[in-house]
Amino acid sequence: MPPILPGQICMEKTPGYFHTAGVPKKLYEMNNQTKLVLIVRNPVDRLISDYNQFRSRHVERGNDYPPLEHFLFTPAGNINIGYQPLQRSIYHYHLVRWMRYFPADQIHIMDGDKFIKEPWVGLNKLETFLGVPNEITEDNFFFNSTKGFFCGQEVVNLPQSEWTCTRKKCLNKSKGRPKAKVEDHTYKQLTKFYAPHNEIFYGLVKRFDFDWPKDWP
């Protein structure tokens, strides 16, 4: 981590930390006052997004890539519990390791599904958690219909002048890219598989406001 001055906050993002055993202990030993931010979404959608990242890397190189069902199911038709993207969406399994070292008031859980729809709401709560002034509002975003996501924007004003400039920034091209087709029966089996794991996660974080389905139509 880079050195910082008094009054500054250093932030670092590495999704792999969450599910990697041994990281919570190492981070605690480095700085046990670290504040942690965890963004979670419907675990079924997160798994599919994980699969799509691997698939896109192969497709961009001109290679074929098997459908999700090839990895997800055993020859007998059962869910393959050894599939790593499946395991990464069992949130309580990984979170409990972090909670052995860090108290709940140092862990901020964000609902990624709600964050996509209203990012300014989630960021306002994050500002409060970090102890910084609430500066971000809905005006700092615009909806990009091509990507299907909100992107950031900042209006820059020149002091003592009528000149203004709006700077806009979207996430990289990997966000909002076309997705491979996933069969309905796959959604149904995954939703059923994750439902009891989600209940354990809700109890662990003492929140029951996640709108993740228990059944698939």
Description:
This protein is α+β, with helices and mostly antiparallel strands. It has nine helices and five strands. It has a three-stranded antiparallel beta sheet, with no helix packed on it. It is 41% helix and 13% strand. The mean pLDDT is 91. Helix 6 (91-99) packs parallel to helix 9 (184-205).
The average pLDDT value, as a whole number, equals: 91
How are the strands of the biggest sheet laid out side by side? 3-4-5
Q: Approximately what portion of the residues adopt beta-strand conformation?
A: 5-15%
Given helix and strand content, the structural type is: alpha+beta
| Secondary-structure element string | HHEHHHHEHHEEEH
Contiguous helical run count: 9
Helix content: 40-55%
Number of strands: 5
Sheet of most strands: 3 strands, antiparallel
Rg, Å, rounded? 20 Å
Short synopsis of the structure:
The protein is α+β, with helices and mostly antiparallel strands and about 220 residues long. The protein is built from nine helices and five strands.
Which key phrases capture this entry?
single chain, 217 residues, alpha+beta, 3-stranded antiparallel sheet, two-stranded parallel sheet, 41% helix, 13% strand
Layout: helices, strands, pairs:
Layout: H1 16-19, H2 23-30, E1 36-40, H3 43-60, H4 68-72, H5 84-88, H6 91-99, E2 107-111, H7 112-117, H8 119-130, E3 141-144, E4 149-157, E5 164-169, H9 184-205
Parallel strand pairs: 1-2
Antiparallel strand pairs: 3-4, 4-5
